Structures are given as C-alpha cells and as structure tokens.
Amino acid sequence: MLKQRKGWSYGAISAVLIGALAVTGCGKSNEAGGNSGTPPEGNSASKPSAQAEAGPYELKWLKAQDISLPYDASKDVVKQAIEKKLNIKIVPELVDVQQYKTKLNLKMSSSDIPDVARIDFADDFQKYAQQGAFVDLTGLINEKDTPNIMKEVPPEIFEQAKVNGKIYGIPYQGGPGAGYRWNLVMRKDYMESVGADVPKTLEEYYNLLKKIKAEKPEVIPLGGYTAQIGETKYANNSFDNVFGAFGVTPGFFTEKDGKFSNYDIDPKMREALLFLQKMYAEGLIDKEFATIKEEQLRAKLYSGKLFSWMGWWSTANDYDTQIETSELMKSGKLASDGKLPNQAEEPFKYLKLTGSLLGADGTAVAPSGAPFSQMNAISAKTKDPKKVLSIIEESLSPENQMLTVWGIEGEDYKLENGKLKVDTNLVDPKTQQDKNGNFRGTQSYLFAPGLNGWPHYLESLPLRYSEALDVAISNPHQITDASNYLESPTKIAKMVELNTMRDSVFTQIIMGGDIKKFDDFVEKWNSQGGSQILKELEESFKKKSGK
What we know:
This is Extracellular solute-binding protein. It holds the Pfam family SBP_bac_1. InterPro entries: Bact_solute-bd_prot1, SBP. It comes from Paenibacillus azoreducens. It is a single chain. The chain is α+β, with helices and mostly antiparallel strands. The protein has 20 helices and 16 strands. The protein has helices spanning 2-5, 8-15, 50-54, 77-86, 100-108, 121-130, 147-152, 155-161, 188-193, 202-215, 240-245, 267-281, 294-302, 316-331, 385-395, 398-406, 457-460, 463-473, 489-510, 516-544; strands at 23-26, 57-65, 88-96, 114-120, 170-172, 182-187, 220-222, 253-256, 259-262, 306-312, 351-354, 366-367, 374-378, 413-416, 419-422, 478-479. The strands form five sheets. The protein has a six-stranded mixed β-sheet with strand order 3-2-1-4-13-5. A hairpin with a 2-residue loop joins strand 14 (413-416) and strand 15. Helix 6 (121-130) runs antiparallel to helix 19 (489-510) and helix 19 (489-510) runs antiparallel to helix 20 (516-544).
C-alpha cells in the first residue's frame, strides 16, 4: 500500500512542512494520569467536560514561531476562522521555532504536559510513551469512530508506530522525514564564468571547487554551518554530497541479513573524513563552517562570497531573489523602493541545483527520512481525551483541511477550474499583515495532517519551488535508516551522547585533527552503548519480522 503512494505527490505533500510550524496543545495540569487510556478519576473521557458542552473547547498550544517576525495571535483571522469552524478556543504560547524541541521536553518533564503534542517519533516519543505520558488510543482509533484519521494514516503505518504493541499517537506522515529534501546549490553565473558544467561526480565537483578558488580567490568554494539549537550537528546536511559519494551518511543505522551497524563507525566514513580534511586544508571549505549559523551563511551568499552549499529545497527561491537584489544594488539598477516583484514564477537566474554526487564506484547515498517522523499524542493528563481526539478527527475532513492548510477561500486562495491559486501578495512581508492589519496564519494551525493531507498542494507550487522540490525528491540515491520503528532502550538513553561525541570528533578531523581520533571514536562508540544498541536493534528486528 505504501509503495503505491510513493512518488511525486507523496514527496511534495511531505515536504510542505517547511511552511508549517509544529503545534501542540496544553491543557490544565492534573497530577494523576497514566497510559492505559483511562483518564484520572473525575475526568472521564466518556463524559465531555462542562466547558465543552457550554462553549468552545479550550486548547492551549505551545506554538513554534519565527519570533523575529511580527505576529499577534489575537489578530490572526485564519486562526479565528478555525476556532469558529471547530468550536474551539486556541490560546497559543509562542516559542521560537529553534527552541521548540527544548521547550517541549521541559514541559514533558514537568506537570505542564500539553494536551496534544507533536513530537519526534525516534526516541523522544517512544521514551515518553513508555513512561506513561500519553493516552492509549488503541481502542479509540478505527474506521467507524475516526474515519478521517484512518484515511490519512493507513493501518500498516499505525502498526509501525506502535510502542509495546499499543497506539499512543497519530503518525504525522506529512513531515520532512518522508523523503530527501536537500539540493547541492551553486552560483550558476560563477560556474559559467570559469567554463564549467554542472558536476555529476565528486571528482568533478572537487575540481570545480579548485577552479573557483583559483579564479575567484575572494569566493568561498563550499559553505557550511552548524545545526540549529536542538538539532543534530549533521542534520543541516552541510556535507551530504561528500559523505554520500563515499556511500555513508552520519547517524544512519544499516542492516544486512539481520545484522546491524552504523555509518558513523563504517570504514568508509574514515575515508570520507580524510577527503573532507583534504578539502578543508586546501581552502575549499569555509573555515567558519563549525561555528556559524545559517543566517551568517546567508550573509556570505547574498554578498557574493559563496559559490556552493547544501540547501533545503524551499530556500532557493528567496536566495536567488536576494542575490539578484544585491547585484542590482551594486550596479545601481535596483528600484527606488528597494523591492523586486515576486520572482517565484521566474526561472532561477543565479542558482543551479543538482542532486547527489557519484563516488568513484558510480554510486551514492542520500539520507532520506522515514515514512513518518513525528507523532501527535494526547497527554494522559488531559481533561477530556475523547473530545481532543474528536477535534483532531473533525479537523481532518477535506473541507477543514482546506481551511487549516490554505486559509479562507476567496481571501487566501481561490479555486479556478478546480485548481488552487494562492494570493502571494496578500500579506506584506515586512509587517506580515494584510491591508486590514490582519495576520493570516495559514499552515500554522494544523492538528494531524497525514499522507493525504495538504490538498491541492502540487498545483499550488510556483515554478521555482516546483523545480527545486523535483530535484530533491527525484534523487534516486535515497536511503532510510534501518533502525526506523525498532525498539532499543539503550538507543533512547545513549544516542544523544554518542551523537555529541561524533559531532566533536568529526569536526576536529575535518579541521585537521589526527585521523586516529576516528579509530578511538569507533572503540568508544561501541563500548559506551553502541554495541548494545546494535544488539537490541537486531533483537527487535527479529521480533518484528517474525524470525
């Protein structure tokens, strides 16, 4: 069933999360609770609360938000329309998007557990589910009572998402982990100026970087940046194409004939690190890659000091426009108001995007996520679990998904001959408000859209977004982590520690450290929990495969 769903539409629906912000609901705390699906005494799920009967059901959300942008929830007309449609009252607690995971984990460890939490499936969700943090939904989700949820998430996905044989949440199949979403991005004009074509192999790319350095010494051949707060170091994919050309990718587990390993300790990883070390020593990699954030990398790009980098698919449009703006400013040809018209429907002018680079053996790997990477779970402390589940169910009707994803018909979007057209000029990018002073939080107030969610998404993509997404999701070298959906208590307890150690060692080696550090890392990785993780994954694999 899953194989039939994969392809362009599957990937595009998944990728749109870049425009959506993670949301969670927070209810009134209650010291009692458990994971049996039976609420604390006096809070029976079978009896809707008096508040729900009297008026809108209140949901307090921990809402991820780019706090650098203006926003006032009380003036969000789409939020108000959703509240009216679902008969709820949303009280958002705004937290910077980079701090979301940290803030959520703090709430999970306190008595202020959210009513509904969107949380990473790998490790975090499994850990909290086993601790009794979430309501057991096993007997509550079915074709009769929750048909909209079942349309979004097929039974086999629920089966994969079970923890100890029970359903503790709704898989979010629209997340970024449903496919590869990164591209190698290069300045097309710089490439043309040195008479080079788009590289297909790592060797061709390496030679191109050397040519750029020789002919444009003021330009950084390959840029990189550290992960954002709360993310794994190499989650930013700065060197994906280099690692991938050696047949490895940091952090991924592998399986062959029931035996597990991890690319972090693979001998081919050693070779990849030595190659990156060579590139760094030759000045082909930004000397600041280990310390700067993405915003600083952007500044170098916009000023013309960067040739190539790994980029998330949806960022290329804005980057191209910013480069054009900078070039027009240099030539004195920028409009007096300092603005360019929307460029999204124009072909890329300054950038060229491509997929994986092939290694010496003609192969490559690109780290693709799992079919789902997040879960929407209802807290065991919530006052009315069945009511919350019914709100999620109602939000997933086709009509309500149009509202939560695209906003108000006739204002945020129109359907012309059955095809969706989004009004891209409705909101001023500086004020984030429309002409009436309203904020429009489309794609921000979502409950649990799944694989079938994001209606009309493909046809809504402007040219540049469509081209960039197509390059990413059409990458034929995508692989998934073999540990997906397998149980390993040690992995939950030790993986952060092992990843932190890896990040430090790998960075040191790239920047010139002795390669013996890698051999020492492999020994420590195994002795400090890695070997036990592999053993537990193998046992879980055998159990799930019926062997």
